[in-house]
From TrEMBL:
<keyword id="KW-0963">Cytoplasm</keyword>
<dbReference type="InterPro" id="IPR029057">
    <property type="entry name" value="PRTase-like"/>
</dbReference>
<dbReference type="InterPro" id="IPR050054">
    <property type="entry name" value="UPRTase/APRTase"/>
</dbReference>
<dbReference type="InterPro" id="IPR000836">
    <property type="entry name" value="PRTase_dom"/>
</dbReference>
<keyword id="KW-0808">Transferase</keyword>
<comment type="function">
    <text>Catalyzes a salvage reaction resulting in the formation of AMP, that is energically less costly than de novo synthesis.</text>
</comment>
<comment type="pathway">
    <text>Purine metabolism; AMP biosynthesis via salvage pathway; AMP from adenine: step 1/1.</text>
</comment>
<protein>
    <recommendedName>
        <fullName>Adenine phosphoribosyltransferase</fullName>
        <ecNumber>2.4.2.7</ecNumber>
    </recommendedName>
</protein>
<dbReference type="Pfam" id="PF00156">
    <property type="entry name" value="Pribosyltran"/>
</dbReference>
<feature type="domain" description="Phosphoribosyltransferase">
    <location>
        <begin position="36"/>
        <end position="162"/>
    </location>
</feature>
<dbReference type="InterPro" id="IPR005764">
    <property type="entry name" value="Ade_phspho_trans"/>
</dbReference>
<comment type="similarity">
    <text>Belongs to the purine/pyrimidine phosphoribosyltransferase family.</text>
</comment>
<dbReference type="GO" id="GO:0003999">
    <property type="term" value="F:adenine phosphoribosyltransferase activity"/>
</dbReference>
<comment type="subunit">
    <text>Homodimer.</text>
</comment>
<keyword id="KW-0328">Glycosyltransferase</keyword>
<keyword id="KW-0660">Purine salvage</keyword>
Length: 185
C-alpha cells in the first residue's frame, strides 16, 4: 500500500491527470481529470486538500463553474457544511439570473447565476477544475462581486501558466489557489 504522507500531493494527483493531445482542436493538450475522479483514493486526497485549505476560514458558500467545477465545488460545500452556488452556461438556470460575458479564443461565451444565489457580504470560494486563459473564472468572480459577495479565493485543480489566466487573476488582485500546473500547451 502506498504511503501518501511521504509524497508530494500535487505530484501524486498530477500523475492521475490524463493528457489528451489534439482535443478538442489540433495543438491543444487537453488535461482530463476523470481518471483522478474515478479513483476513490485520489478523489479523496484532492477534496481533502481543498477542505483543509478552507476549514478554518469563515466561508458561507462555495460557487462552482459549469461543469467540472460543480464536481469539486459541491463536494467541498458539503464537507465545509455550507451552501453551493452553480454558475452555469447561459440559458440553463430557470429563475431570474445575472450574467457575465467573457472572451474565448474563438469567440464569446456567457455564464450566469441566480440573482438570489448569495447575499451581500457572503464569503465565497469560487471553484473550477482548471484555469487556462482565466475568462470563465474572471466572469464568475465578477458575477459574485456584482451580487455583493466577497470572493475569499478562486481555486482550481490545474493551472496552465502559459495561457495567462492565473496571471490575469493575480493582476486583478483575486487570490488564487491551484493544486498543480502543467507547462506546455
Amino acid at each position: 500500500m502506498e504511503n501518501l504522507s511521504n509524497l508530494d500531493y500535487a505530484s501524486y494527483l498530477k500523475g492521475w491527470i490524463r493528457t489528451v493531445p489534439n482535443w478538442p482542436h489540433d495543438g491543444v493538450m487537453f488535461r482530463d481529470i476523470t481518471p483522478l475522479l474515478q479513483n476513490p483514493k485520489t478523489f479523496r486526497v484532492l477534496i481533502d486538500i481543498f477542505v483543509h485549505r478552507y476549514m478554518n476560514e469563515k466561508i458561507d458558500m462555495v460557487a462552482g463553474l459549469d461543469a467540472r467545477g460543480f464536481i469539486i465545488g459541491s463536494v467541498l460545500a458539503y464537507e465545509l457544511n455550507v451552501g453551493f452556488i452553480p454558475i452555469r452556461k447561459k440559458g440553463k438556470l430557470p429563475f431570474t439570473t445575472v450574467e457575465e460575458e467573457y472572451e474565448l479564443e474563438y469567440g464569446n461565451a456567457v455564464v450566469e447565476m441566480h440573482t438570489d444565489a448569495c447575499k451581500p457580504g457572503d464569503r465565497v470560494v469560487l471553484v473550477d477544475d482548471l484555469i487556462a486563459t482565466g475568462g470563465t473564472m474572471m466572469a464568475g468572480y465578477k458575477l459574485l462581486q456584482r451580487l455583493g459577495a466577497e470572493v475569499v479565493e478562486a481555486a482550481a485543480i490545474i493551472e496552465l501558466p502559459e495561457l495567462g489566466g492565473g496571471k490575469l487573476m493575480r493582476d486583478a488582485k483575486v487570490p488564487l489557489f491551484t493544486v498543480c500546473s502543467f507547462n506546455g500547451l
